[in-house]
TrEMBL record:
Transmembrane segments: none annotated. This is 2-oxoglutarate reductase. Its EC number is 1.1.1.399, 1.1.1.95. Pathway: Amino-acid biosynthesis; L-serine biosynthesis; L-serine from 3-phospho-D-glycerate: step 1/3. Keywords: Amino-acid biosynthesis, NAD, Oxidoreductase, Phosphoprotein, Serine biosynthesis. It comes from Trichoderma gamsii. SUPFAM superfamilies: ACT-like, Formate/glycerate dehydrogenase catalytic domain-like, NAD(P)-binding Rossmann-fold domains. It catalyses: (2R)-3-phosphoglycerate + NAD(+) = 3-phosphooxypyruvate + NADH + H(+); (R)-2-hydroxyglutarate + NAD(+) = 2-oxoglutarate + NADH + H(+).
Length: 471
């Protein structure tokens, strides 16, 4: 088992390095870390017994809290490491979250758990956050970085699932399938063709042509749709899709408008009364991005007027913490209005909720957490500089890996190397991101009893945010 220790105010700054078989490391010239197979989670083995002087804790001492029903694949990888894993099916109210987060070194969440500065400031032992989803808007990334807490996510493992849901919704809206099905469930046969359409030849307007938007573009063209898209970045069109210069251009031309932008200050209420009024009469709106992107009261007005012939919402400004919670309470006054509208598909944030997506996300994020906890590798981190050293000497005795997360100020490397200077620095890599820098150094000829001195000296530097020594 690997181990870690706690030197400063409960912050685990060192844990025993573990060996890793070289087949798990990329041999590509770019030296990126290849995503390991699922067995990676059990592939890391302890190297030697723990030196008493460091009061290290074993991997069993690493406490991980997983919220929001993280997939079994991820739980298995983490428990396979020997970490203590507590997994809950829902998110937690802030007060309970604060109580729980005080104790853990790692937290895994999905889109609902808000890790604000207020919550994170209580997380004295936290070294890393895993977002088992695409979005990271629920985490205060800047504050986490200032504290040296790494954040990882799964940038595209559920993109296909979302794109397929949107395709289903386009046809469902065009044919009013939701309403017909509801009527049949109530015993009413209502065979109509008025205002029911084929999607072939219609124009799909995609707002945000990233992972999901671009995948959707390909699927929609296969159905015979014309695709236009709007994005703040100029992006290569797939197939015969066409980028339009403004959102208004898209709204005026599209029969279906679908939103795939992140939650940013600029995308809040991006679709409100003015934008809905620009949309073609009888057009449709789909939002499977974030609940903040659509002004819901404005949508209700537009649908009641008939200008918008149908809509699909998968995401909402306030979402319940878990299944069974009452939807209307969270939407306040809008819940009842939404539920009363025809040709409005309401789904409980299930865009990425498929077996395939959740299983892949579980593996991807859990592997990233293991690599970070055990090896300090930040590849894929959304808030720290991405640093990886591929060490061929990890299994040799008297080697240690130093991780020094620090403020990006002049003179740090000189001071760090003064501290490491008595040892043989085999490799060293440092990268910065804004005000923050991440240094990784593999040193040899270091005795275990010297490791505490190194850690203490690094901690004593004024630039220090967090020091970890892996050995
Ligand atoms: N419903 C779900 O279950 C579900 C699942 C996955 C992702 N999502 C959400 O879907 C959204 C898109 O995900 P993605 O993986 O495609 O993201 P992405 O980062 O790959 O793509 C987002 C695109 O939006 C563009 N963009 C940013 N700001 C914009 C603006 N103001 N106007 C126009 N374009 C803008 C970006 O340039 C980028 O091309 C995110 O909000 C994500 O959280 C929801
Ligand atoms: O950000 C995401 O990946 C989606 O919104 C899905 O979130 P979820 O994992 O909470 O369903």
């Amino acid at each position: 088992m690997s181990s870690a220790r706690d030197i400063n105010a409960g912050v685990p700054i060192a844990h025993r390095r573990v060996s890793i078989s070289t087949q798990n490391l990329s041999t590509s010239p770019t030296a990126t870390f290849q995503s390991p197979p699922a067995s990676f989670g059990t592939g890391l083995q302890p190297r030697r017994s723990v030196p008493k002087v460091l009061k290290p804790f074993n991997t069993q001492d690493i406490k991980i809290l997983l919220l929001e029903n993280v997939n079994q694949t991820g739980r298995d990888i983490l428990t396979g490491q020997g970490y203590q894993v507590e997994a809950l099916k829902t998110s937690l109210p802030e007060d309970q979250l604060i109580e729980k987060i005080r104790d853990v070194h790692v937290i895994g969440i999905r889109s609902k758990t808000k890790l604000s500065e207020r919550v994170l400031s209580e997380a004295k032992n936290l070294i890393v956050i895993g977002c088992f989803c695409i979005g990271t808007n629920q985490v205060d990334l800047n504050y986490a970085a200032r504290r040296g807490i790494a954040v990882f996510n799964s940038p595209f493992a559920n993109s296909r699932s979302v794109a397929e849901l949107v395709i289903a919704e386009i046809i469902t809206l065009a044919r009013q399938l939701g309403d017909r099905s509801l009527e049949m469930h109530r015993g009413t046969w209502n065979k109509v063709s008025a205002k029911c359409w084929e999607v072939r030849g219609k124009t799909l307007g995609i707002v945000g042509y990233g992972h999901i938007g671009s995948q959707l573009s390909v699927l929609a063209e296969a159905l015979g749709m014309n695709v236009i898209y709007y994005d703040v970045v100029t992006l290569m069109a797939l197939g015969t899709a066409r980028q339009v210069p403004t959102l208004d251009n898209l709204l005026e031309e599209a029969d279906f408008v679908t939103l795939h932008v992140p939650d940013l200050p600029e995308t809040r209420n991006m679709i409100s009364t003015a934008q809905l009024n620009r949309m073609k009469e009888g057009s449709y709106l789909i939002n499977a991005s974030r609940g903040t992107v659509v002004d819901i009261p404005a949508l209700i007005v537009a649908m009641r007027s008939g200008n918008i012939a149908g809509a699909a919402l998968d995401v909402y400004p306030n979402e319940p913490a878990g299944n069974g919670d009452y939807f209307t309470n969270n939407l306040n006054q809008w819940g009842e209005d939404l539920r009363s509208l025809s040709n409005l598909i309401l789904t409980p944030h299930i865009g990425g909720s498929t077996e395939e997506a959740q299983s892949a996300i579980g593996v991807e994020v859990a592997d990233a957490l293991v690599r970070y906890i055990n090896l300090g590798i930040t590849l894929g981190s959304v808030n720290l500089p991405e640093v990886q050293l591929r060490s061929l000497t990890m299994d040799e005795p008297d080697h240690a890996r130093i991780i020094y997360i620090h403020r990006n100020v002049p003179g740090v490397l000189r001071k760090v190397n003064e501290i490491l200077g008595d040892h043989n620095v085999d490799k060293q890599l440092s990268d910065s991101r804004g005000d923050l820098a991440y240094l990784m150094a593999d040193i040899s000829n270091v005795r275990y009893e010297q490791i505490k001195d190194i850690a203490d000296s690094l901690d004593g530097l004024s630039s220090c945010i967090m020091t970890r020594v892996l050995y």
